[in-house]
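Why does residue order matter? Because the sequence determines the fold. Keep that principle in mind as you read this record.
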Amino acid sequence: MTPDSATLHAKLKEFFGFDSFKAGQEPIIKHLVAGNNAFVLMPTGGGKSMCYQLPALVMEGTAIVISPLIALMKNQVDAIRGFVAGNDGIAHFLNSSLNKAQIADVRNDLLSGATKLLYVAPESLTKAENVAMLKEIKISFYAVDEAHCISEWGHDFRPEYRRIRNIIEEIGTAPIIALTATATPKVQSDIIKNLGMNDATVFKSSFNRPNLYYEIRDKSDPKRDIIKYIKQNPGKSGIIYCLSRKKVEELAELLNINGIKAAPYHAGLDAKTRAENQDRFLTEDIDVIVATIAFGMGIDKPDVRFVIHYDIPKSIEGYYQETGRAGRDGREGQCITFYSYKDIQKLEKFMQGKPIAEQEIGKQLLMETVAYAESNSCRRKLLLNYFGETYEVENCGACDNCLHPKKQFDGKEEMSMVIELIQALPEHFKIEHLSNILAGEMNSIIKSYHHDKLELFGAGKDHSARFWCAVIHQGMVLHLLHKDIESYGLISVTEEGLEFFEKPYTLMLTEDREFAEGEDDDDDPAAAAAAVRGGGGGDTQLLAMLKDLRRDVARKKGLQPWVVFGDPSLEDMSIMYPMTYDELKNCQGVGEGKARKFGKEFIDLISKYVEDNEIVRPDDFVMKSIVNKSVNKVFIIQSIDRKLPLEDIADAKGMDMEELLDEIEAIVFSGTKLNLDYYIEQTLDDDIVDDIYDYFHDEAESDSLESAMEDLGSDYDEQEVRLVRLKFLCEVAN
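Structure:
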């Protein structure tokens, strides 16, 4: 007999202690207990798990819950056992973490009918012995949690999920409820089709999370920003997402050094450590978990107050689901994402070599993320629109774009100029090259192609190259321009772009947003949260004096000024007034080696300036950096001293060449001198080494790899430039 509404409410109170259902839960539960298929689209924090937990407890038989994460299963099984005292057999999970004795316990409870909920990983569901066991029991229904994993267009595609329907038919059919917090209309139809549930009723809740504040920040000094933000929000729980395991480890260590209780979470840690770190977060032994995207699915921690993305996610769905971990109790949740176009280029690079179809999907998802990050529209409106929902409010009052609107201008002429330039060139070029032509910025590539002779060279010199980069990015977002990932990011004009060029129309573009001190608004907590950035104006008089000193030191030593100290280093000095070597080496881009080699005159100048002007030095936020005494560092230094091939060093540490060069650069930038001549002489032509070395010695205006690649041109690959740059820095700067 199907339970009526009064019975369901009584059971809700008996098992879970709630007097009423959350919005949207009751009709879904009634539909399922009546034996019908359901597709549930409900945002994180909306109460999806109740939609199958309560039906499982009131229906005859055992509900099979297919879930992608072991951590999620354990979390939910513990919760159910907590609600139903004295019957641990009522809920179990079946996955690779169980030993034979534990599997036997699960089997006994299943066959005796004690178990109402069995959580199964999709991989475990396909094992022959588990299929045989499940055939012996009565199944009330199947719940497919995180159902977006079925779709190649979803942000977390899992091939095993596409086999679920076949396995269900083998075990025995029963009603299916598929649940997800993120699914575009395309993903939704993919899920329904793959699970063979075209008759399913779709239950769709609003995706709006009014308590969440969304902000995109310029990724200029993210570590400093993050530490400052957390210190200004003491005792609050938060999650920081990074794309790589290495960055997770580094950032967790940095937070701890700066007095913030944090732990890492990623697939490279053993299961015991992962479980311990998750439990420490749930029990508030630590405040912050630094994780790759695998963390947090289904974790029942309602009071996560902030979610920070150190790296921008690969898709809007991933972004929405990860930001959805914040404020599940309905109270404040700050969602801050650091954005840099370099990160997009890295993600594009990862796609190269994958099947073309996969690249196309990945590229489209990524471009939607770029459009979101660079847009000046209400972020809430953009997110809801992505999921097929209309948001009518003009200003949401809880995103950076609504609180601090970006300046707009009619970019009709500027976009036309970009298109005219691309059309005038016989070959295609990258964004940076096109921007430099329009801004009239001369470099070796422009010289070599004679692009300084073009009619459009310097035609947009009233604006910087960065401005023109922003125009081109927005042209891509608007589908007027196209960037080909396969051919190294070369820009071309689309059909839409040609139509625009023929008949230009008003095109509102956004100026680059500069985050500055002074956006603070004490009456508005969301605005205040948007402005808790480090940085800001230093002492301009001191900065001018430091630049003069740098020029003199560089001239005496026959070096380019940046080799002594880069602009970011001088700007830090003008803010922090360092008067000792230890204080100086904490400035951006200085390190122990440079502080000792060039620092004395700078320390002397700053000390005298502070005394003459009676400066009260800021007892401001100072970020402690990691003293890198890692096993990797010692191993790499010793291996290079022994003249081992870099490929062998990388293999020994399970790295690829790019990761090893990152490590070597960190060692060199911190001031340690290495001799890589043995490797460079074996692998690079002398002419190439001389050309790149001379470039850094005579032409380069900074140690920027991006600028070097652009100036040197396509005759040199990135690895060659990085190796010779290391040689130059070791011989000249350190």
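The mean pLDDT is 82.
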